[in-house]
């Protein structure tokens, strides 16, 4: 199959839901995708099994603070510069582009990047959601060496990092990103299709499209979305407090939702770092105390408009919005010991043992 | 000729004088040079004319705040990692190492790096002195494209930057340097011997050795040094005030010297940013007012111990030291319009038109 202009709105809605508040503003990625498809034609969507084992897959993502990415006009030559560097280093051009993170703008942007390069998009990504740090990808969890990062910024600089590990990869890429104006296009874990098997999360472009289409024309969009995701509804109410600041290339903060209607008197706080990380009822997360915690990273927590079921991204949170909070299980990869070490609650500074959302909400 | 262990003290003294206070602590470079020569043997010193036109010359320097470089134990594998990256990108290994800046530790360190790699050292550098920013090199002034920077840090990360210009080269390299612990080894303007002609300052290793030897056993070391450099003595006195802080990978500050003996009542202030930049008598530099300015960058200003004529580096400035301040002309390359635009007083934020030290001190 191919992705054409008519698929972009559904893809964008699905990617916003999977973005758990982050991954960049999907409007930015959508505009870029529509513009590129009009100029270069539709983008073939391929499965890993369709590619020869030695085909080069280039995982791409925008890196930077969403509030900055949102406002910057993206250059159009970044994908070309990354592809040129890939060809210089590997002696052959990319066979396919992959989204590093399906959540948010980074799930839609790769359609534009693939269109510009004239290569197919792989139906897979490295997260099955969005995460704020570059080492938080399935390739890292699968034990692939984080031996090469290629970055291209809007002014035309290209930076190649050969880090000793994933944490240095994050530290150096973030420093380059901040120096380059807090936004850049990044290729991380360039790999062959052969090595990608078992190291990427397959089918996630198709899944995002399906999520986006689930609410189209639905009488009860919130219910339709919940069914599609297999999600628990944590609260329905009103956004009463948003505390959000941009520091060191990240957006950090909290969003507080107070219950309305039948749920009057309840209060849920969502803690976020680009993405929504922890949802806790009646209070803040305290060291080691998980009383009140209803869901935690790497499980997915998304704030949606109660009426339309559209995701509300971190940068669009506003006092008084009528919202519901949904939570659902992450890909099993993230529940392995290496997965939790990489992107569990402690990786974000929370002194909490991970408990799956199904258990946390079973008696809720 | 070759550089052996017995040459290192003189080379270090000369490089410290040419460092105008900066370029890193020469003791660090000296220790590394002695250790590497003992392990790998003496280092051939070659002239540009000795190399075939297509021989690869790799200009190397340490980048970072001197106060940090001073205290960090340097890794020994950085030169090897840079050379491997050069070979990966150019398809052949380096034929010679060149010091990017002859001033300070960066003039002595390349002896160690060349010894470890088993390649000759080129008798040339990119500054004829020391400068704080990476675009302030003769290759940039000569119009060579700043198209590649290779950095290797102490933990083993390798970063390659393809910047759009010299200023972006500086901005990105500095960001990587700070993220990597404020110190890294850097190859900038990897070039063939053919392209190096007219784009590097030749003979500066020999010059540094000659400066270092001028004071050996001299009855009047200060006079001998002054003669060798063709330098003017701006003041002899006592260090009465040192204001120094490390921010964003740089050391910035001022040093004030009050005259003693015949010069009692006089006061000279040296403004510095890693290196000594402006010497002004009786007052601070005010916008556009050069009254009292006795020497300014790119001319060289070095504070020396009055008795031994050894250079006092920025990080060693101490209240009460008996010092003299010498100033002498820079290489003619720095007095061209492009040279002054790159490293003249305005490049450092001083609202001053450049006037050669010979003119500023002719009526002093």
UniProtKB/TrEMBL annotation, chains A, B:
<dbReference type="Pfam" id="PF20906">
    <property type="entry name" value="S-Me-THD_C"/>
</dbReference>
<feature type="domain" description="S-Me-THD-like C-terminal">
    <location>
        <begin position="166"/>
        <end position="357"/>
    </location>
</feature>
<dbReference type="InterPro" id="IPR048350">
    <property type="entry name" value="S-Me-THD-like_C"/>
</dbReference>
<dbReference type="InterPro" id="IPR027479">
    <property type="entry name" value="S-Me-THD_N_sf"/>
</dbReference>
<feature type="domain" description="S-Me-THD N-terminal">
    <location>
        <begin position="7"/>
        <end position="161"/>
    </location>
</feature>
<protein>
    <submittedName>
        <fullName>DUF917 domain-containing protein</fullName>
    </submittedName>
</protein>
<dbReference type="Pfam" id="PF06032">
    <property type="entry name" value="S-Me-THD_N"/>
</dbReference>
<dbReference type="InterPro" id="IPR024071">
    <property type="entry name" value="S-Me-THD_C_sf"/>
</dbReference>
<dbReference type="InterPro" id="IPR010318">
    <property type="entry name" value="S-Me-THD_N"/>
</dbReference>
